[in-house]
Amino acid sequence: MRTDTIRAAAVQIAPDLSGRAGTIERVLNAIAEAADKGAQFIVFPETFVPYYPYFSFVLPPVQQGAPHLDLMAEAVVVPSPETQAVADAARKRGVVVVLGVNERDHGSLYNTQLVFDADGTLALKRRKITPTYHERMVWGQGDGAGLKVVDTAVGRVGALACWEHYNPLARYALMTQHEEIHAGHYPGSLVGDIFRDQIEVTMRHHALESGCFVVNSTGWLTEEQIAQIHPDPALQKAMRSGCMTCIISPEGRHLADPITTGEGILIADLDMRLIAKRKRMMDSVGHYARPEMLSLLHDTRPAVTRHASRADQVPEMDPEEDTTDV
User: Fold this and answer.
1) Which CATH architecture is the domain 5-305 placed in?
2) Would you say the C-alpha torsion 278, 281, 287, 288 has a positive or negative sign?
3) 263 is catalytic
């Protein structure tokens, strides 16, 4: 049974750029470390497994073929032995885990967020609805079916990736489902200090507007990894800073000093009673809403490329039972 206080962990670590096996090992080690510190809810960065496609930000399209194929080869299929390993770790330690992966679905890649409940079940698989700028060379688009809040051992959990937080209707879709803990994901080590500052503003605003806790995780690259991605010092500048791993209360306050550089696991206790304290004054989807004037149309149907004909589902009529007028 959920208690009034949930201990959350936001993980800022570097991936293993050689592939998913090494990064999954880092995920499992971080789950164990956070759980040892009492964490019940653990969030990892955007597309952390096997790694975020930093190459797409610094390479022209004509040079992206080889690294894109490498990413496809190391991407995660859902379900797979890799997702099962994370599920087993969640079940063993009794923790809820939110993990960003590059998901391979046959010939396409997607920016996917996975929510594993504390019993190891996969509570949610959702895909980023619109890849941002350079990411459109790498990932396909998600759909409205993934804009869903799920019940977990720690409460109602929703998730968005990176600039999805700049889509107010996507955020509102989760707010209308009364999320209590929001998992945010960003790549980290990208753009520079301005990205770090923008992330902080965005995470604090969502917490305030939705009246929920926000647990946000950004990635990290070492200097050796940055040099591995691109040798040009001028372009390497685009892969530094931009980290804001933070945990925010429904009142918009940091619950621990954010991690903006290096690796680490941020830990904070979430007093779930603060949700009611905030929403008593301002519930954006309740008493503070004006649905007769403003409301959201959310198409929750999965986007599919094949629709089977229903003709073969209509039973054949017995000619002797034909009652058609002559």
Assistant:
1) 4-Layer Sandwich (3.60)
2) negative
3) no
